[in-house]
Write a structure and sequence with these properties.
This protein is of the alpha/beta class. It has a single domain (47-236), classed as Vaccinia Virus protein VP39 (Rossmann fold, 3-Layer(aba) Sandwich), CATH 3.40.50. The chain is built from 7 helices and 11 strands. A 7-stranded mixed beta sheet has the order 7-6-5-8-9-11-10, sandwiched between helices. The protein has a 4-stranded antiparallel beta sheet with strand order 1-2-3-4, with no helix packed on it. α1 runs parallel beside α2. It is globular. It starts with a strand and ends in a 15-residue tail after the last strand.
Length: 251
C-alpha cells in the first residue's frame, strides 16, 4: 500500500515547476496520480473520460487500416493508450513539450508508462506541438512533410484558455489551415476542451473544415459530487474527390 501522499518527481521547466504526485483516495483505496505545472492543476488519473473520448471520437470517423496518428500532449498517457488499443492504428507519434513528462513514462513512474513505451507503434517526440504545426516540415522530423490520418490535441484548457499566449494563434483560421495541411484527405482533427462548446471556436472551425461537431462528454465527479463535463471537437478535411467518369464514347 502506498503512502497517503507522495511527491514522485519535481522539476523546474521553462513553463514553470512541474510535479508528479501520488495520493491514496480514502474511499476506494486506489492510487491517484496528479500533475501540476506551477500553480496550474493539469491532470489527474481520477478524471480520464475526456482523454479517452478524445481518442475514441477522433478515430471513429476514419475507415480502413494502417492509420497514422499524432497526439499533441502526452500527460498521463490515457489518450495515447486509447489510440493504441485501436488495432487499425499503424503508428502513433506523441508530441510533448516537456521532456520530464516523457521521462516519467520511460522510467515507468506513471501507470501507463510500460504500456506506451513497450508498444513498437508508439514514438514519443520531445517538441513544441504548436511550433511544429506552424512549420511547413510538419510534425515528424524523420519524415518532413509527412501527413497523418488524425491529429488529436489535449494541451490547453480550451481554445480561449491557453497555457501560453503563443498558443492562441493556432486556434485561429490561419493556424488551423496549417494544421489541416498536415492531414490526409478525409483526415480528422480532434480537440479536448475543459469548457462548454464555444460558438466562437466552432465559427473558426467552419472556416477551415467542411465537417465538424462538438461532443459533450459527461462523467461522475466523486470530489464534488454530481457530474462534470468536457468538450471534444471533431473536424474533418474533405475526402479525395472521386476520379472523373470516362466520357461516353457514343455509338
Amino acid at each position: 500500500m502506498s503512502a497517503r501522499f507522495e511527491e514522485i518527481d519535481w522539476q523546474p521547466t521553462p513553463l514553470g515547476d512541474i510535479s508528479l504526485r501520488r495520493r491514496r483516495e480514502p474511499a476506494s483505496g486506489a492510487d491517484v496520480y496528479e500533475v501540476r505545472l506551477g500553480d496550474e492543476f493539469l491532470m489527474s488519473s481520477m478524471f480520464t473520460a475526456g482523454e479517452v473520448a478524445l481518442a475514441e471520437l477522433g478515430l471513429e470517423p476514419l475507415t480502413g487500416a494502417g492509420l497514422d496518428v499524432v497526439v499533441g500532449g502526452l500527460g498521463l498517457g490515457y489518450t495515447a493508450r486509447t489510440v493504441l488499443r485501436d488495432q487499425r492504428v499503424a503508428s502513433l507519434l506523441v508530441v510533448e513539450a516537456l521532456g520530464e513528462v516523457i521521462d516519467w513514462h520511460k522510467r515507468h513512474l506513471v501507470p501507463l508508462g510500460a504500456d506506451l513505451t513497450g508498444d513498437e507503434r508508439c514514438r514519443m517526440l520531445h517538441g513544441d506541438f504548436f511550433a511544429l504545426a506552424d512549420d511547413d516540415r510538419g510534425f515528424d522530423p524523420v519524415a518532413p512533410g509527412r501527413r497523418f490520418d488524425a491529429v488529436l490535441l489535449d494541451i490547453d484548457h480550451s481554445p480561449e484558455h491557453v497555457l501560453h499566449p503563443r498558443h492562441a494563434a493556432f486556434y485561429r483560421p490561419a493556424g488551423l489551415r496549417k494544421l489541416a495541411a498536415r492531414l490526409r484527405p478525409g483526415g480528422v482533427f480532434a480537440l479536448w476542451s475543459n469548457d462548454p462548446p464555444s460558438r466562437a471556436f466552432t465559427a473558426v472551425l467552419a472556416e477551415v473544415f467542411p465537417e465538424f461537431t462538438g461532443h459533450v462528454v459527461t462523467f461522475g465527479n466523486p470530489l464534488q459530487g454530481g457530474t462534470a463535463a468536457n468538450t471534444v471537437y471533431v473536424a474533418r478535411t474533405a475526402s479525395a474527390a472521386p476520379p472523373p467518369r470516362p466520357a461516353d464514347p457514343g455509338p
